[in-house]
């Protein structure tokens, strides 16, 4: 009897476990009985085993166990570049657009700038008749600006043999905009820049401006600098400038520097009767005319009526007169010149040795002054002497190479000076011919 009661109790407990299993998992009773029997009627273990062995959605199993799961395929992997880097930008800076809220962007007329760029500055006369507005006052100098990248500006400077003049504009600084209004609009400044520089103006918030700022450490505004287009070296930097001061600064720079390749003076200043403006053929003709002008045919004739004595002994007097007839003078009159005869030994002693330019060179330990002589025939000759060498060294050297100072003069461009009129006892450094200078050897203007 006891065993029969235990079986009935166990069957009741098993039925309860089966119902609980079915209510939790949603499975049928046959499946529940199998799982419970496998787990020795441990409900928790049976439920866990059922969940692990049945990954399908229980909701689908209750509603429609035979329906397939509506799960989409995974998205295939793909690679793409979200933002391409600028081809000409190699310093790791992201290319940024110009800020639309810059202070002076509202003052710029981009349509007018595009028109000026297309006309290449040929309609300045018609533009000057228009009403002067803020856009006109603060407009960049498009007629002298180089429009391109920094690399192309350097390349153009090398081809044209001109220095690279950089103006970095900060839109937040009013002093930068004053440059456009007062400095770059000056006709003299424009003329100097056109002849000797490649002018490149860029804004600070552009990619080229950020790159330039990072490389050249340009943090003070206004910023103006002169770069060597061949090496990229920054030669000078200017910040506080006016239309007057920048002319002096540019003039001083051009006086101390020749062209980037050192072949010529970079400023072409027009002057009358100057060898600077003459062609090689004109210079050769002028040199030949000056040399022929100094040569006068003359003949020395001994007059038979003059008192001429011969001497057999050196002890006799030598104070004799010789008459010299100049055939270039009037035929009716003879110009008589008294010549006092001197002993040969005394005549040799009185002749002084000619000065040599080498006698006036300075010490080899001093700094060197590089001078480029532009000769009348168009050729150039370069000399490098110690800066303590006397100016007379230069004058004697020019005479030695065939240019007598009676007919030729030595001049510099900036400032305009006649070297022959300076104190020849001073050194090259004292007369501002250091560290380098271009000197023109030209014919004197005898008509002035």
UniProtKB/TrEMBL annotation:
Disordered as annotated region, ranges: 52-73
Pfam entry (one): UBX
One GO molecular-function entry: ubiquitin binding
Domain UBX residues, every copy: 364-441
Compositional bias segments (type: Polar residues): 56-65
CDD domains: UAS, UBA_UBXD7
Keyword Amino-acid biosynthesis: no
A single GO cellular-component term on record: nucleus
InterPro entries: Thioredoxin-like_sf, UAS, UBA-like_sf, Ubiquitin-like_domsf, UBX_dom, UBX_domain-protein, UIM_dom
A biological-process GO annotation: proteasome-mediated ubiquitin-dependent protein catabolic process
SUPFAM superfamilies documented for this protein: Thioredoxin-like (SSF52833), UBA-like (SSF46934), Ubiquitin-like (SSF54236)
Highest taxon above the source species: Eukaryota
Key words of the record: Phosphoprotein
Protein name: UBX domain-containing protein 7
